[in-house]
Write a structure and sequence with these properties.
Elements: H1 3-11, H2 18-28, H3 30-38, H4 47-61, H5 63-77, H6 81-94, H7 98-112, E1 118-125, E2 128-134, H8 138-141, H9 144-155, E3 163-172, E4 175-184
Antiparallel strand pairs: 1-2, 2-4, 3-4
Helix pairs in contact: 1-5, 2-4, 4-5, 5-9, 6-7
Length: about 190
């Protein structure tokens, strides 16, 4: 996984409060925290680090706050060099269409993850798409909370075109997908 995204996730702990941040960092371990903080932005880090970080956050704050933390990290990354170009291009190309914007997750996933399969977006309805994970690593498949975090990260994309997104995880053996739907955000 790209060091820059893992760093965004680690830095996002501050929003969860000092006690949570200190606890998660302590449990993650000094060696991994130092690796995350000192790695160049484009370096690839073991997926295990981010899965462990996610598990620790979920244990500390519960699932709802974990999913919000996952979304906040992607919102922050959307302003970074790693993903901002994709997002700006998507907004220019697709305007206010949330489904088309979600298709960008296919390329964004490849920018964040290496040797971790791929995502394919399939249309479902006017207000929903199915995002299908192909050849996802066993580490992900065996960690439903991590998959939920990925879904939450995809579901935040409609926010950029004044919609509220929701992702529902579907796992059947090795088959993983998310139904991502959206509704206009009330002004």
């Amino acid at each position: 996984m790209r060091a820059m995204q893992v760093r965004e996730n680690l830095e996002g702990l501050a929003a969860l409060g000092e006690d949570v941040e200190a606890s998660v960092r302590g449990q993650l371990g000094e060696a991994w925290v130092e690796l995350i903080e000192t790695a160049t932005r484009s370096r690839w880090l073991p997926l295990e680090i981010d899965i462990t970080l996610s598990r620790l956050v979920d244990q500390e704050v519960g699932r709802a706050a974990f999913l919000e933390w996952s979304q906040a990290a992607i919102m922050s990354s959307a302003e970074s060099p790693l993903l901002s170009g994709f997002l700006r291009a998507g907004l220019r190309l697709f305007g206010g269409n949330p489904g088309s914007l979600i298709r960008l997750s296919q390329r964004g996933y490849q920018q964040i993850f290496r040797d971790a399969g791929s995502l394919v977006v399939e249309p479902l309805r006017e207000d929903a798409v199915r995002v299908v994970g192909h050849d996802l690593p066993r580490q992900m498949i065996d960690e439903p909370l991590y998959l939920e975090g990925i879904g939450a990260s995809i579901a935040v994309l409609p926010h950029f075109v004044r919609n509220v997104g929701n992702a529902t995880l579907e796992v059947d053996g090795d088959a993983v997908s998310w139904v991502v739907s959206w509704t206009p955000r009330e002004s």
